[in-house]
Design goal:
Blueprint (H helix, E strand, L loop, with lengths): L10 E4 L7 H14 L3 E4 L4 H4 L9 H12 L3 E5 L7 H6 L26 H18 L5 E5 L11 H15 L2 H8 L33 H27 L6 E2 L1 E2 L8 H4 L7 E3 L8 H13 L6 E5 L18 H11 L2 E6 L26 H16 L12 E4 L2 H8 L10 H15 L3 E4 L10 E4 L9 H10 L3 E5 L21 H4 L1 E8 L6 E5 L6 E14 L3 E6 L8 E8 L2 E6 L1 E3 L1 H14 L12 E7 L4 E8 L5 E4 L4 E3 L5 E2 L4 E4 L4 E9 L5
Parallel strand pairs: 1-2, 1-9, 2-3, 3-4, 4-5, 6-7, 7-8, 8-9, 10-11, 10-12, 12-13, 13-19
Antiparallel strand pairs: 14-16, 15-16, 15-17, 16-20, 17-18, 18-19, 21-22, 22-27, 23-26, 24-25, 24-27
Helix pairs in contact: 5-8, 6-8, 10-14, 14-17
Length: 682
């Protein structure tokens, strides 16, 4: 099963007409047509309306909503309605609500409040999905199914504890194996009966919050279990849908979201989708990394941008407004990185509750002459002109970046050497360097096939499991380059330290051993000198300073201060026909970028405009071999470059020849269809 079949990039978003009287629907419909909105996501939070009582279903309102959208010629992504359970369910079955990390049973309220292990929740949510799919499966306007909504959170109730024990039996088989994996001889923790095992929470193994645990192995497994428990909920509903429909099924992810390992979910989704709400102050590279991560879930298959705000969010202390042009720019960035749909939350602003000030295509006054509406309509017209030119196009990357939830979890719950190291920040620093160089990147699971990549970047690969070390070594053996960093190769699949020199199984590839490591506060800086001669560069390093002893590796950078001044900080090891690089400290961005550029230069990998401030480049290749080059100016100043390929700008129809001057104003976008055929990509 693959993506929904559509004639063009679907454009629209979440629509909740059940919140308004039906005469408003007519006004909305006319405005949708003006804005070029051809796709609506319906029914995400309709459980209380479609099942108002345990023994009663009422699809009358949803029937009218679906019928109105279909008559308007809109494509429908139809939700199962299980994004939040109804009040009657929590009252009739209190066990359906979650118990939080501190041991408190929640009552009805909010969303993300359903225990994933509750048999009642699983039965009733599955039945609702079954009925929705059966009722609308033959409606030709429906192109995809949307299960749940932004899965997340965790539950620590007795049902989840019992489910955890069953999960552990399947994983380990015997208590002896479990005790060995969890290192339970420490602190007299040896388990002699499965029923002795508790969910790790503030009442058991934790103090000072979810990241401070006495037994990393127990907490690591509980995070894996909880991710898979919610996946079981998704599978329940998808199975029910399949009784009536073969249309593609998805759920909306949240990019780099720590509680759920999206790699473990990927095989169960027919296509990936996600909601782009970047953190305040994030760079364009943060969004690009998130897009590439979602695209990588399905082996490079395009994804849907299921949600983004057309103007502002409403869930933070401060909610900045997207300036003119930024909504369009970020939408095209998603397409540049593999999006085959661009959708918003929300199409009409809610009148009440916590999202009433969240951005919308149509505001409370229902006007079509606002700046936001005009920008949305202009973008809709662009997608209409674009047609199917980008649909199905793939990203031809020769660089892979590993993003590993197990390493994220294990690193940030480790009691040493530093709790100031944040996995996502380390990964983003290395992705930023790749983004600045203009290279296309596949962001992959640690279990992915690496045989087609010239460069593999694996920052903070704290946990190394299975045959990963061997597969990384094979990349270098055949002539590729592997780059990894401090705190990599530290623990095995159970979170236990390797009984070997650091970096454990990565040592042969990197040609180093780390005997000691120093950790300081963020205010402490140790300069690092990189390179030699005319290319020498001094940069800053912080947080963790590993004391590296080369065992075959060449020294590329050295510390300049403290008692270990003059010792290696960055090394390069010849391994087979390639190299294994090791960075033993948290370099500043200049330092990270210098190292990354050394790696890329060996393979002749760089985009057409590396280091042009704010200018992003990305490529996609269509099924017929045409190469699409995207140029996006995220800077505050105009950018002037020279065309490196000939082709046609798909947004304006203008012809471009090699050598022509190109000017991109702030927030400008160019989508150039190369006249030649696709070759090797940068």
């Amino acid at each position: 099963m693959s993506l929904p079949v559509t004639p063009k990039v679907p454009f629209g978003g979440d629509y909740n007409p059940e919140q308004w009287p039906e005469p408003v629907w007519d006004d909305d419909d006319r405005r949708f047509t003006l804005a070029g909105i051809d796709t609506v996501t319906l029914g995400v939070f309709d459980w209380a309306l479609t099942q108002p009582a345990p023994d009663r279903y009422d699809f009358g309102l949803l029937d009218r909503i679906v019928d109105r959208a279909a008559r308007g010629g809109r494509m429908i992504c139809l939700a199962t309605g299980t994004g939040a359970h109804p009040a009657w369910l929590a009252r009739a079955h209190p066990e359906v609500t979650r118990v939080d990390f501190d041991g408190r049973r929640h009552r009805f309220g909010q969303r993300h409040n359903s225990c994933p292990s509750s048999p009642v929740f699983r039965r009733l949510s599955t039945e609702l999905a079954r009925r929705v799919a059966h009722r609308y499966a033959d409606n030709p306007a429906v192109v995809a199914w949307h299960v749940g909504n932004e899965y997340g959170g965790a539950c620590y109730c007795d049902l989840c504890t019992a489910g955890f024990r069953r999960w552990l039996r399947e994983r380990y088989g015997t208590l002896d194996a479990l005790n060995a994996a969890w290192y339970t001889t420490f602190w007299s923790h040896t388990f002699t009966d499965w029923d002795e095992i508790e969910a790790p929470s503030a009442l058991t193994e934790h103090w000072r919050g979810p990241d401070h645990t006495a037994f990393q192995g127990i907490t690591l497994d509980y995070r894996r279990f909880m991710s898979e428990a919610m996946l079981a909920n998704f599978r329940d509903e998808k199975t029910a849908i399949r009784e009536s429909s073969d249309l593609p099924v998805t759920t909306n992810f949240m990019g780099m979201y720590r509680p759920i390992d999206y790699h473990r979910w990927a095989a169960d989704l027919d296509f990936a989708s996600w909601d782009n709400y970047p953190p305040e102050g994030s760079s364009p590279a943060w969004m690009a990394l998130s897009h590439d991560l979602i695209r990588g879930l399905k082996d490079g298959q395009p994804f849907w941008l299921m949600e983004q705000t057309p103007s502002m969010t409403a869930c933070r202390d401060v909610n900045p407004l997207k300036p003119p042009g930024v909504m369009r720019l970020w939408s095209w960035q998603a397409v540049a990185h593999g999006a085959d749909a661009v959708l918003f939350f929300q199409l009409r602003a809610s009148r009440g509750a916590c999202e009433k000030y969240h951005g919308a295509v149509i505001g409370h006054a229902g006007r079509a002459d606002t700046r936001v509406f005009r920008e949305v309509a202009e973008l809709g017209a662009e997608f209409r002109r674009l047609g199917d030119a980008t649909l199905g196009a793939r990203t031809p990357a020769r660089v892979a970046l590993l993003f590993d939830w197990d390493s994220w979890w294990a690193l940030e719950m480790s009691d040493g050497p530093s709790r100031l190291v944040r996995y996502q920040q380390v990964v983003l620093a290395y992705y930023q360097a790749l983004w600045d160089a203009g290279v296309d990147v596949d962001v992959l699971a640690a279990t992915a096939d690496l045989s087609s990549y010239d460069v593999v970047v694996a920052p903070a690969l704290h946990l190394v499991a299975g045959d990963l070390a061997e597969r990384l070594a094979q990349v270098a053996q055949r002539g590729g380059s592997v780059l990894t960093t401090f705190l990599s190769g530290r623990v095995d699949v159970d979170g236990n330290a390797f009984l070997a020199d650091v970096p454990g199984p990565l040592a042969p590839l990197t040609g180093v051993r780390v005997d000691e490591w120093d950790a300081r506060g963020a205010e402490v800086v140790n300069p690092v000198r990189l390179g030699t001669g005319a290319e020498e560069l001094e940069v800053a390093s912080r947080l963790v300073f590993e004391l590296i002893i080369p065992e075959g590796a060449d020294v590329v950078g050295s510390y300049r201060a403290d008692w270990y001044a003059g010792t290696p900080a960055v090394t390069r090891n010849t391994y087979g026909a390639g190299h294994g690089w090791y960075v033993g400290t948290a370099l500043d961005q200049r330092g990270v970028s210098w190292v990354v550029r050394q790696v890329l230069d060996r393979h002749g990998l760089a985009g057409p405009y590396p280091d042009v401030p704010g200018l992003e480049t990305a490529a996609r290749v269509t099924g017929d071999g045409a190469r699409l080059l995207f140029l996006l100016n995220h800077g505050t100043d105009a950018v002037e470059v020279t065309a490196t390929v000939s082709g046609v700008d798909l947004l304006t129809g203008a012809r471009v020849e090699v050598g022509d001057p190109l000017r991109l104003d702030p927030a400008a976008v160019l989508v150039l269809r190369d006249s030649g055929r696709a070759g090797t990509s940068s």
